[in-house]
């Protein structure tokens, strides 16, 4: 088993709710505080800074846009937000009210694409705030996380429809049902092998789908761990959070899985990202960010 060191850094009180995390264009970590309605920034080795939004807006996923600003979803306020690295905030309301935006990611077309969980739509927003919505061919699907694929399309999880979806730049949607029933896919990312990787929170599995729709599933050691988010480290290793397992896991592209317990009980890890310092960072709902780094051992000569 690969040895890692895990350090936790407080960024909010226990009610703030760190949820998603990404590395920004300024070499700092940016994160959402879903319960307190804040956006946070942490440069490794320094103190965190936060910006207050509407306290009830529920900021969820955050990502870097093509304009070098941070873009985020406001799940409860039904808005898309933008914050510059100096803290200037703008907010945009999609045309469909009550849409519950959740996942957001930059596309290959210099726009941001996002999911609308409650209205079965995928949204697209340009950096000047123009929004287009595309209906999905399924109902009650709860589209969740979204990422840019290797094929100039956007790939997303359909949590309640038990499927993975793809939308092209022309708005055409393809849906790929999962082999495991009621698997509940949530997080998704583009892998280093030309495929998309996702986690199945209800089935306790890691999944892989190729651009042609071939799906492979890898059961986790703890099927009750409720994996939530997934990303790719600088070395091409896949990393994911286990929300109920109080741990993070790693996987190779051929499905070799390892898991690492987090030091604080019931810390509830959610988002995970490669950091600016070569380590992995995850947002813990207990008010901390955790840094996970491989430990290099030197053999005696």
Automatic annotation (TrEMBL):
Keywords: Antibiotic resistance, Lyase, Magnesium, Metal-binding. It is an enzyme of class 4 (lyase). The active site is at 270 (proton acceptor). It comes from the Bacteria. Its cofactor is Mg(2+). Belongs to the Vgb family. Monomer. This is Virginiamycin B lyase. It comes from Micromonospora echinofusca. The lineage of its organism: Bacteria, Bacillati, Actinomycetota, Actinomycetes, Micromonosporales.
């Amino acid at each position: 088993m690969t040895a890692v060191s895990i350090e936790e850094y407080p960024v909010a009180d226990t009610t703030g709710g760190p949820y998603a995390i990404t590395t920004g264009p300024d070499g700092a970590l940016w994160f959402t505080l879903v319960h307190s309605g804040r956006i946070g920034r942490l440069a490794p080795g320094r103190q965190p800074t936060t910006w207050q939004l509407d306290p009830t807006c529920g900021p969820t996923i955050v990502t870097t846009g093509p304009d070098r600003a941070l873009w985020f979803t406001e799940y409860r306020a039904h808005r898309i937000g933008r914050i510059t690295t100096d803290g200037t905030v703008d907010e945009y309301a999609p045309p469909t009210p009550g849409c519950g935006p959740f996942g957001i990611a930059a596309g290959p077309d210099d726009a941001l694409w996002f999911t609308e969980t409650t209205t079965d739509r995928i949204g697209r927003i340009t950096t000047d705030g123009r929004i287009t919505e595309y209906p999905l061919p399924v109902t009650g699907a709860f589209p969740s996380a979204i990422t840019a694929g290797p094929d100039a399309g956007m790939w997303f999880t359909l949590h309640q429809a038990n499927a993975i979806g793809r939308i092209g730049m022309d708005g055409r949607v393809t849906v790929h049902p999962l082999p495991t029933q009621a698997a509940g896919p949530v997080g998704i990312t583009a892998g280093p092998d030309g495929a998309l990787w996702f986690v199945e929170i209800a089935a306790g599995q890691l999944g892989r789908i190729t651009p042609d729709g071939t799906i492979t599933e890898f059961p986790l050691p703890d099927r009750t761990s409720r994996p939530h988010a997934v990303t790719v480290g600088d070395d091409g290793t896949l990393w994911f959070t286990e929300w109920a397992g109080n741990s993070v896991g790693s996987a190779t592209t051929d499905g070799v899985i390892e898991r690492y317990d987090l030091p604080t009980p019931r810390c509830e890890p959610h988002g995970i990202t490669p950091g600016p310092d070569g380590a992995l960072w995850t947002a813990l709902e207990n008010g901390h960010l955790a840094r996970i780094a491989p430990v290099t051992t030197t053999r005696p000569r």
